Amino acid sequence: MVIIAPILVGLVYVVLMSLIHEPHRRRFNAVMVAGAGAAYLSGGGLGIWEFAFTAVMTYVAYRGLESWTFIGIAWLLHTGWDVAHHLKGAPIIPFAEHSSFGCAICDPVIAIWCFAGGRSVTDFLRARVGRPAV
């Protein structure tokens, strides 16, 4: 369940984000990943590096305002930061020991969707289900 739940969270995120129409979906996701980049800031588990990481994520998220690829890169950067925090023992949610581990599994699911262009999976499903059988 430690692995399945984060994958499901990533898939739910993709479905919910698919309900937002473009170009708002891309811009909203850029803002979301910028926020994720600052998620560890208050914990300070990696010291001054938390500020450097937040600056890098801010830049990549800014580029993501116009590019799904940059949003995907940002989610993968966050995955690396999750792994570093998990190994350090400084989880994203202080009272949930494996929260950074779960985040490191969830984030690549979102990144894959971003690298695929952040397309609406709900629109895709509607088109498939709504087609008459031939």
TrEMBL record:
Superkingdom: Bacteria
One Pfam family this sequence matches: DUF6010
Family matches, as InterPro entries: DUF6010
Protein name: Integral membrane protein
